[in-house]
Design brief:
The chain has 281 residues and is mainly α. The protein has 14 helices and no strands.
Amino acid sequence: MQLPGFDLEKYLNHSKKVDVGGLDFAAAARYPLSDDEVRCLTYMMDIESHTIVYLKGILNTCAVRDPQTTAFLSCWAYEEFFHGRTIGQLLEACGVPVAEDRVVEVQKKTSWREWFEQLGASIICQISDHFHGVYLTWGAISELTTLEGYGILAGRTANPVLADLLRRLAKDERRHFSFYYNKAKQQLTHRNAQRLASFILKKFWLPVGEGVKPDSEVDWMNRFILGDSFGAQVAARIDATIAKLPGMEWFNLMSRTREDTLRRLGPLAPRALELAPQTTR
């Protein structure tokens, strides 16, 4: 299965759960996590663990008709499950309990918007096969946002075990992004695909986690990750990367979302960047 820009066969042959060899989770407890880190990691864990639900929705769309996409998704869901599981293991090693039914509880709180999006995607696929390009572009944005978020938190934390884990997760996410991006590039060659993708993204795009997490939590996460000057650079870098896809030269949604969030919540407090450890558990 040839895909320009991404070696799908190599990915399929080497796909595995995240490598935690050499990570001393017991040692992580010697570097207490801050309240903000716990909140951020819990958000990341919940979204990674929710991947199986995303997959259910994707398989009801025209994306399932493409053998490259279905082959990739089979490995992607497996890897993302272990991302969520491993983040949970680190939280527990640091004294933060994670309920066994956490995934179920998160699913119960999912908003109507996620259901509506899945229904809309299925209906659009009955009208146009070009929705595949929309899904792939949306996925590229999500994966790029996720790997950048891991990188930002890895650079801030004083916990070396967490930093190491986040960089390993980001390495996986970079491969995921590469598939979505290069496959989207292939699917967006048709002008109608570009028009549909632009319309849906401009009208309905949401940041990673929205629809699963409460709006207030999404806003907090956006500000925590992207709220400083470096975050502005990262948001601009994401926009510039997606804008290189065919027909996406207008893309600026990450920077716009960041600006809207900061208008609602105000600037990121300097103490949020310090990540002072919790004094109690």
